[in-house]
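[job 0412] stage=fold_complex status=start
inputs:
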Amino acid sequence: MTSREPARFPATRLGVRDAVIEALAGSLQRPGRAILTMLGTILGVGAFVAVLGLTSTATGQISTQFTVLQATTVNVVDRASADGANRPENAGDPSAARPPISFPSDAGERIERLNGVQAAGLWWIAPLGRTGISSNPNGAGDGEGLKVYAAAPGAIAAMEVTLVTGATLDPFVEQHHERAIMLSAAAAARLGVRDLTARPAVFLGDLAYTVVGIYSDSRRNPEVSLGALIPASTALRDFGNPDPGEMPATLVIATRVGAAQLVARQAPLALRPDEPDSLVAIAPPDPHTLRDKVSGDLTGLFLALAGVSLTIGTVGIANTTLVSVLERVGEIGLRRSLGARPRHIAAQFLIESLLTGTIGGLVGTSLGVVAVIMVAAARHWTAVIDPAVTLPAPVLGSVVGLLAGLYPALRAANIDPITALRS
Amino acid sequence: MTAYEVRREPVLRLIGLGRHFPGPPPVQALYPSDLAVFAGEYLAVTGPSGSGKSTLLHILGLLDRPTSGQYLLDGDDTARLPERDRSSLRANRIGFVFQSFHLLPHRSVVENVALAMLYNRSRRSSRRPAAEAALRQVGLDHRLDARPTTLSGGERQRVAIARALVNSPSLLLCDEPTGNLDSTNSRSVLDHLGELSANGYTIIVITHDPSVAARAERVVEIRDGRLVETGAAIR
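[job 0412] stage=fold_complex status=done
writing structure:
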């Protein structure tokens, strides 16, 4: 009898659904171990989602603050003064000839006519020289270190100072060069000024200034919250031009939300139609740029930590899958005897680790989202969760599972069925 | 061709089949031998341990390849087939019964039996009914959803027999099927094998136990790697 030509045999196959069912049954053999195996992936993906979620949430808050304050602020300085400020030899030197203010005298009024401007005015640090502010005429320096700012009424409005008592420096005192002063609450405490009904005075050198009001802080220019404010016109008369080395005359403009960029473009022309290039308007940075920068700074380190967790997760799954392969050598032999080909064995173990990774990724994503929501709720923030980050996050777990399963699956596929059946 | 062969087509035919392991040390596990097993035969292969029984079983089960000669299964020369086709033959034409049962402990009895239909392109919907029918044949249709760990050794081996039967294979290969069983359970398992033989299944039992071999119609002994016919077929 001779052998006949071998017929084509229908190749054995393992359907996707069958493979998933077998892999699930394999994973669920030891549910406790499966959960522990997932832990690394859960932590890694959870950290990933939480870090990105918390960063975008926190950045959202930063952006809100930013929009309300900085995004509505435009500062205009004289280009020459600004350059002078950078020359250290001029800084604080009273003998240096101080250039006159290059802004027109009605600078604040001109700018306030622009669309989108809420308030505007000039201010600078009054160049007191060696004379400081004190509570008595002999100049005993009880107010040493306190800065006195010259500010036009429009600047004070733009600074958004919070008046505690008394009055602000109004256009009347400005126009009449009155020696009036507003003290910050901190300066008032230093100088022993509490009650304004007796019209107390403080001394700048030997010049008496009547305290007209006390303010607690300035929202837009927090630096003035620890000093004192005097009318710009009075400062020019009593102390001369601003010292560009200390601080050049600056026009602060409070704009409506969204108007800052436009106002910044228009301001130099409105102020100096003859020579707009002599002024520099400093607009706030684009909010989107700032947000990106903040998220970049914050996330780098934490994403690295999430990466470490994911690596540990990968090693964990790889290790458990390998142990599972070695424990189930008999099963591998049996499956081979039932017609499974090496690729079917590999697929089964690969899908097992893929499922472990994917479920870990799903759980991690859920926990990450919950963490973001809880932190946001506790801080009364609005949780910002980017679907572009959250939705693909479980895939990260799948990738981890797939990578982790490669070596064990290969080992399983290469197990000799005869040896396996003997085990 | 002899008149005998005209009457019945051999399911399995070994022509000068040998197996040599290159080592080290080199071992001739099976010397070139001939054997024909006909449809419905109940054959026992006996021999002391180390005689080459397992090597023969692995070659017959297409888990190993001979180094010389031919192995024809249903007329197909299996020795030269690629692994892909040998897997297909294992899935469709060979049923294995192992000494250690090889049941998956976390799967139910019926799932263990249906596992034999996982790779051979059987329709998913047909698997459970076929597994139930196979379990009915071995008298275990009342334990369909039990875990193997809750069964006695004899019952476990009967589940393994049902798994081997479920694809209606050309050949049932049993490797020491009673090796892990007490005498009562052994008898029960051998009774079932006898019934299957009576129903026309071709069975080869590899055993070192003379009492198991005695149940077969025909006995082949392996002595130092050589097949020696010791008992003629009754049928």
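[job 0412] summary: The longest strand of chain A covers residues 207-218.
[job 0412] exit 0
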